[in-house]
Design goal:
With 136 residues, the protein is of the alpha+beta class. The chain contains two helices and six strands, in the order H-E-E-E-H-E-E-E.
């Protein structure tokens, strides 16, 4: 299930206009900005009854925008636009039926150094809820 979710998340992220690079996993370095990488965080499970489980799969989506070319203000505006689009995209998606519900939260913007560029970074935590029968 985790790898199925990864491929659906990648497809959703590829629909966002204006993103230069998208990585499934942590990249060695960025070539272009804005860039996104996402990674699996954890899974939590709960028995609803003797026949059903509910699971939450958590992924982190990391968004990066360098500030040297555009300046701090425009870079922050660009990052916020992409951040909004990521959250809204997952608010409207069920990942082709894999999710009962998706919660996308985050947006803590921080200044970080990547390679030689000062960069703004935001994290979105995506929780994907699923419910399935144990007798499948």
């Amino acid at each position: 299930m985790i790898n199925q979710l990864r491929s659906k998340i990648l497809l959703e992220l590829q629909k966002i206009e204006g993103v230069a690079e998208i990585f499934d996993g942590i990249p060695k370095k960025f070539g272009w900005f804005p860039s996104i990488f996402f990674n699996f965080d954890r899974v939590e499970s709960q028995n609803l009854d003797s026949n059903h489980h509910q699971r939450q799969y958590f992924f982190q989506i990391n968004i990066f925008q360098e500030t040297t070319t555009l300046g701090n203000r425009q870079s922050e505006l660009n990052l916020c636009d992409i951040l909004d689009e990521v959250i809204e995209r997952f608010d409207r998606s069920d990942l082709d039926g894999l999710a009962l519900k998706i919660d996308a939260v985050g947006g803590d913007i921080q200044s970080v150094e990547t390679e030689s560029w000062p960069t703004l970074h935001a994290i979105v935590l995506v929780a994907i809820h699923s419910d399935f029968s144990l007798w499948m």
